[in-house]
# Entry
Amino acid sequence: MSSEEIFEPKIVAFVCNWCTYAGADLTGTSRLKYATNVKIVRFPCTGRIDFLLLLKSFAQGADGIIVSGCHPNDCHYTSGNFHARRRWIAFRSILDMMGVDVRRVQYSWVSAAEGSKWADLVNNTVADIRALGPYTDYQKVADYLEKEVQDGEA
Amino acid sequence: MEKLRERAAAILADGTVSLVIGYEEGTKRPRPLFCHDGESARKLIFDSRCFHNLAVYLTKKELVGNGRFAVTATISTLRSIMQLYVENQLSEDKLLILTVDLSGTLREFVTFDEISAYVEQFELKRGEREQEILTRIEGMTREERWKFWQEEMSHCFKCYACRSACPLCYCTKCVVEVNRPQWINPWPAPVANMEWHINRAMHMVGRCTACGACGDACPVGIPIDLITRKMMEDMAPEFGYIPGLPVKKGNALSTWKLDDREQFIR
# Structure
């Protein structure tokens, strides 16, 4: 990559089916433009989002992660996001202890009516991660960078 | 100690228990001893060198059988036992606890209430070694912490001794034994090692009693007990209770509060 090129981060978004996915849908139907760096993965509920999925994303080349679901008290399953919130509090503390860059995981609540909030969230996260640069620290030890070169040659 | 041996022999003889789990003199340091009769109970010892967490054996059905059994317990072991009780892994009618307190008196616990009243007297404090390493880690920047753990993790060869030594790792099928999907690569590699240890810490949230058994068991001396220890210290104020202290209100991750505090969700 030449130095003039802007770094385009790869961002994986883990979102819940009932709020954020519908919210992202609304962003599209409202014709709001937002960064294309994000790959959305739809889950039944934020409570279903396993922490290992987040680690796997980093190992497979993600530079940033968005995790988003229903606002507290709005969960389709009543308490999934409350459970998830606890898990994230713990997960964040452990990641920080291990020296993983916690700024690269952005958590949010986006409801089905907040199409513009989703666009803002993605745009802001992309800007943040772009400022942080590629997550080579992690990708190096995960052998992701080597694989990328090999795949390119093959 | 003599009283402990006598008592162990007596309860084995009169059939109160069918097994006493305790410590005996080993080649370098005390090792676990399983007494099925009064004869072997004479080898029992109990002193400050006994630090193995014997609670790890209590969930092994093939070992303790269906009868009643007794265990000699240190304070850390008692904490683990309390947590196992909170998770419905132990029942009062199966277990008898023997311990020798600081003044050298033999104590016997039958109910979990007795244990909790006793354990509450002891404050869980960082030891010298923990204090030293944790202060060092806390003083590091994120990049330095990353480097520190990468260096430590490079020694890990995935023997899973940390898992075997932990009294609270009692799942019969562990996530690393699942291969559809293969969450954590089974070979020792930097990221696979780190994923394993993060995974272990995550599974210990609100459960770890900081007995340090995992760190002691590590053959290459990675201070892995500090990952869970730090997590436990961080989580105690967040979730309002310390594991091993007996509040039967469920696991930290299986319960929640409306006002759980965080500053990072926007």
Q: What stands out?
A: Residues 11-153 of chain A form a domain with the Rossmann fold fold (CATH 3.40.50). Strands of chain A lie at 11-16, 38-43, 64-69, 105-109.
